[in-house]
Amino acid sequence: MKRWIAMLMISCMVLGALNGCSQNSEETNESNSTPSTSESSSAGGSGENVTLQYMTLADGKILEAEQHIIDNYIADNGHVNVEVTSVPAVDTFITTLKAKFAAGEEPDMYLFQGGTRVREFASAGLLKDLTDEPYMAEYVAESDKPFNSFDGKIYGVPMRYEYN
Fold first, then answer.
1. What is the C-alpha separation between 115 and 68, in angstroms, rounded?
2. Residue 75: φ, ψ to 5°
3. Is the pLDDT confidence value at 9 over 80?
4. 119 and 150 in contact (C-beta within 8 Å)?
5. How far apart are CA 80 and CA 132, in angstroms?
6. Which among 20, 26, 122, 159 is least buried, having the fewest CB atoms inside 10 angstroms?
7. Pairing between β-strand 149-150 and β-strand 109-112 as defined by DSSP bridges
């Protein structure tokens, strides 16, 4: 039962993040969802076709769940396409993400660990400042803001919570 609740929470957060991406003029990238500073073509409510690049650490059943959520979202938002890249090994994910940034091919959104990587990419100017985005009040607790911040600005949105 707890696993299904967690999957539902992840699903809601991924869907919410994708919805925010397709409605903003600056497309977004982050377990955190982290936007890059690059811009793709904007949906902006105009009905223009938009392709979002999404990179995830997930594989197996979690990746299947993410893909199902994305497919449902695309079915409801026909002007949005999401290209998914799964890199299920942490070291390979970091290397791949750094290579994509270096090549100017960064994903619009990625789902990965917050903290160190958020600060590393934000300090290099690679992530979008999310501090004043309207969804931040809904998705980010005050206790999570320092973990996903650099230089007083927020660059990541927690997508799930885990307890040990």
1. 28
2. -60, -35
3. no
4. yes
5. 24
6. 26
7. unpaired
Q: Which of 44, 51, 31, 52 is nearest to 144 (CA)?
A: 31
Per DSSP, 86 falls in state: E
Q: Of 31, 85, 13, which is closest to residue 54 (Cα–Cα)?
A: 85
First to last CA, the chain: 18
Write the burial class of residue 36 (CB in 10 Å: 0-12 exposed, 13-18 middle, 19+ buried).
buried
Q: Look at residue 27 and give its three-state secondary structure.
A: coil
pLDDT tens-place string over residues 12-60: 445 454 445 444 433 333 345 656 554 433 344 556 899 999 999 999 9
Q: What is the DSSP letter of 46?
A: T
CA distance 132 to 32: 17
Q: How far is CA 18 from CA 3, 80, 81, 142, in A?
A: 22, 9, 10, 23
Do 128 and 105 form a contact (C-beta atoms < 8 A)?
Answer: no
pTM of the predicted protein model:
0.67
Query: Alpha-carbon distance 33 to 141, whole Å?
Result: 15
Structure token pair of residue 33: 């969802």
H or E element: which one contains 34?
A: strand 32-35
Residue 18 CB-density burial (10 A; 0-12 exposed, 13-18 middle, 19+ buried): buried
